Amino acid sequence: MPQQPIETILTRQLASYLSVPTLVVDPDGTIVFFNEPAERILGVRFDEAGRVSPSRAAELIEITDAQGRAVVDGERPLLVALRERRPAFARNFVLRHADGVRLEVETTAYPLVGQAGEMLGAVAMFWETAPR
Questions:
Q1: Tens digit of each residue's pLDDT (9 = 90 or more) over 20-70
Q2: CATH class belonging to 6-128
């Protein structure tokens, strides 16, 4: 595993203490960490999955809108945070993970920028919404 910037290491450490499901990705969109609450929602443990490439993530987790349509990249908060270097929020996404369980979630994401202004990745937090 390549050496990670200290900011990414500290973000991983913080995420491990949060009760909100949290993903940390590198600038290429590879998941470099997800915490225990995220493990419960995603249906896989980080220790077992390790780093997850964007293509592998697409196999593990399907993201649709509430009507079942695929969500385009420009509407995915994590990709907006990575590409546009700004925070983003979305509600009414449906996650379907590998075991077929579907959950309606809200998500927020923000870019992780180093002291010299370099893009280090992004952080996404998501939570299941209450049925309406």
A1: 999 999 999 999 999 999 998 888 899 999 999 998 888 778 888 888 888
A2: alpha beta
Q: Give Cα separations from 130 to 15, 36, 103, 105, 127 (angstroms).
A: 23, 20, 10, 9, 10
Pairs from 48-56 (Cβ < 8 Å, separation ≥ 24) = 51/1, 54/28, 54/29, 54/30
Domain boundaries, the chain: 6-128
pTM of the entire predicted model: 0.88
Query: Degrees (nearest 5) of the Cα angle 100, 102, 19?
Result: 115
pLDDT at 103 > cutoff 90: no
Q: What local confidence, expressed as pLDDT, does residue 93 receive?
A: 83
